[in-house]
C-alpha cells in the first residue's frame, strides 16, 4: 500500500493496462470489432489506448527531463566544488609566495658579514598599535616562550625596525627606530671608521650627529648599525638626506630617511 501511495501514477497505468487486457480478451473472443457491445468496447479500447500512449509518452519525456536536469545539476555542483577548491589552492599558493618573499627580505636585512656572533630569528606578526604613538610602539605575538628578551633587536626585510621594550608569554612590545627614545650607534658604509648616533625625530624620520666634526659625511651616504651597544652590526638604518654643521656644538648634524617604513609593517623578526 505504501508503494502504491508513493507511485500513484504508475499504479493507475498498471490498472489501466490490466483493464485493457481484459477488454482485449473479450474482443477477441467475440470475433473482432463486431457490432453492439464489442464494437463499443473496441472503440473504447482504441480511445483509451491512444490516451495511454500519450500519457506514457508524456511520462517518458518528463522522466527523461528529470534525469537530464539531475545530471545537469550534478555537473554544476561538481564544477562549483572544483572552482572552490581551485580558489582555495590559489589562495594558499599566494600566501606561500608572500611568506617566501617576506623570509627572503628578512634574510637580506640580516647583513652580518661584519660580525662573527651567532644569532637566531623569531618571526612575529604585529597584533596591535599602541595609543597615539602607534608608529613608535607596537605589540607582536611572540615573547619569552620564544627566547625573546628586553633589548633584542627587531628587523624586517629592509633593515632595523627597533628593539624590544617589554616582553611576556606570547607578546612583546617594540619601540621603533623613529621613537625619540631609541638611540642607535651607526657608521658609514663607504667609510666604517666614521661613527655617529641617531634617534627618532618628528615626522617619522631619524636624525643625529657624527662623532667627529671633521667627518666627510654627505647626502646620499648609507648608514648601518656599528655593532656598538645592543644592536648587531651591519643592519641598514637609512640614507643621509641632509648634513648641517652646527657651530655651537662643533658637530655635523644629519637627517636620515629610514630604511624601514614603520607605518607599513605587518611582520617583523626578532634577533635572539
Overview of the molecule:
It is a single chain. The chain has 272 residues and is α+β, with helices and mostly antiparallel strands. It has two domains: 109 residues; 156 residues, Beta Barrel (Thrombin, subunit H). It is built from three helices and twelve strands, in the order αααββββββββββββ. The strands form two sheets. It has a six-stranded antiparallel beta barrel. Strands 6-7-8-11-10-9 form a six-stranded antiparallel β-barrel. A hairpin with a 7-residue loop joins strand 1 and strand 2. Helix 2 runs antiparallel to helix 3. The longest helix has 74 residues. The radius of gyration is 43 Å and the shape is elongated. The two termini are 79 Å apart.
Tag the structure with descriptive keywords.
272 residues; Thrombin, subunit H; six-stranded antiparallel barrel; six-stranded antiparallel beta barrel; 29% strand
Radius of gyration: 43 Å
Taking pLDDT < 50 over at least 5 consecutive residues as the criterion, the unreliable ranges are 112-116
Name the structural class. alpha+beta
What is the CATH topology descriptor of the largest domain?
Thrombin, subunit H
CATH architecture of the largest domain: Beta Barrel
Domain module count: 2
Q: Total helix count?
A: 3
**Secondary-structure element string:** HHHEEEEEEEEEEEE
Mean pLDDT: 75
List the topology elements.
Elements: H1 2-6, H2 8-29, H3 36-109, E1 121-129, E2 137-140, E3 153-156, E4 159-168, E5 171-176, E6 184-188, E7 195-201, E8 205-210, E9 222-225, E10 236-246, E11 251-258, E12 267-271
Antiparallel strand pairs: 1-2, 1-12, 2-5, 3-4, 3-12, 4-5, 6-7, 6-9, 7-8, 8-11, 9-10, 10-11
Amino acid at each position: 500500500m505504501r508503494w502504491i501511495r508513493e507511485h500513484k501514477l504508475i499504479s493507475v497505468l498498471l490498472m489501466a493496462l490490466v483493464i485493457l487486457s481484459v477488454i482485449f480478451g473479450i474482443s477477441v473472443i467475440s470475433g473482432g470489432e463486431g457490432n453492439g457491445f464489442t464494437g463499443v468496447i473496441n472503440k473504447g479500447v482504441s480511445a483509451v489506448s491512444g490516451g495511454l500512449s500519450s500519457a506514457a509518452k508524456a511520462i517518458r519525456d518528463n522522466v527523461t527531463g528529470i534525469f537530464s536536469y539531475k545530471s545537469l545539476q550534478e555537473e554544476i555542483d561538481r564544477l562549483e566544488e572544483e572552482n572552490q577548491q581551485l580558489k582555495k589552492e590559489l589562495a594558499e599558493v599566494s600566501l606561500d609566495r608572500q611568506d617566501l618573499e617576506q623570509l627572503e627580505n628578512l634574510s637580506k636585512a640580516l647583513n652580518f658579514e661584519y660580525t662573527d656572533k651567532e644569532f637566531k630569528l623569531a618571526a612575529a606578526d604585529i597584533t596591535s598599535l599602541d595609543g597615539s604613538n602607534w608608529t613608535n610602539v607596537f605589540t607582536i605575538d611572540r615573547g619569552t616562550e620564544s627566547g625573546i628578551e628586553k633589548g633584542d633587536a627587531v628587523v624586517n626585510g629592509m633593515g632595523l625596525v627597533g628593539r624590544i621594550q617589554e616582553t611576556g608569554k606570547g607578546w612583546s612590545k617594540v619601540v621603533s627606530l623613529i621613537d625619540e627614545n631609541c638611540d642607535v650607534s651607526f657608521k658609514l658604509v663607504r667609510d666604517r671608521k666614521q661613527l655617529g648616533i641617531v634617534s627618532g625625530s618628528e615626522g617619522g624620520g631619524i636624525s643625529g650627529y657624527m662623532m667627529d666634526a671633521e667627518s666627510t659625511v654627505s647626502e646620499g651616504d648609507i648608514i648601518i648599525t656599528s655593532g656598538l651597544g645592543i644592536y648587531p652590526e651591519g643592519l641598514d638604518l637609512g640614507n643621509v638626506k641632509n648634513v648641517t654643521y652646527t657651530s655651537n656644538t662643533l658637530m655635523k648634524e644629519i637627517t636620515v630617511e629610514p630604511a624601514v617604513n614603520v607605518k607599513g609593517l605587518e611582520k617583523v623578526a626578532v634577533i635572539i
